[in-house]
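Handout, section B. The chain below has 162 residues.
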Amino acid sequence: MSSRSPFWRGRVMYSSARGAVTALAVTAVLFGGVTAPAQAGPAWNKSVHCQQKDWDGRVIPTRVGNSELGWRHLSGPHNIKKCSIIDAALNGKPDKIDGPRLEYWAYAWDNSNSARRAKVVVIVQYARKTADGRYSVGAGQKVGVITAYCAGTNRCPNWLNQ
């Protein structure tokens, strides 16, 4: 025989929808309220588009992503269309480190006009989750490249992709 009262046992053992609601209500009263289910993060493609190893041995993926991070983000609004641009920045040591947030820089010159230059900044989250916790990859994996852009402008020049 259970040590719980028949009232408790009866409410939990209902198999109808009414019983489920009653069980939830009893649980809410006992534990201080109804909690909302955990929200899933935004939809994004975790597939790796390209990756590069930095000089400290970190393997950094550039994931396909979505409009907020990854390849789809940086190849659209920031006009970076080649992995080699990202790889050039990651082929070195981080220029700034803030916990798992790493920043890498690369400098590019236009071969046809040496006066045209661009500083490429690549932002990496070297952790399983983004700083805001909205995006996550599996255990033992890293989010990787969040974004890349040309310093001082929203869109990198077209000559950078040639």
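Note. The helical segments are 6-12, 17-31, 71-75, 83-90. Compare this with the example in section A.
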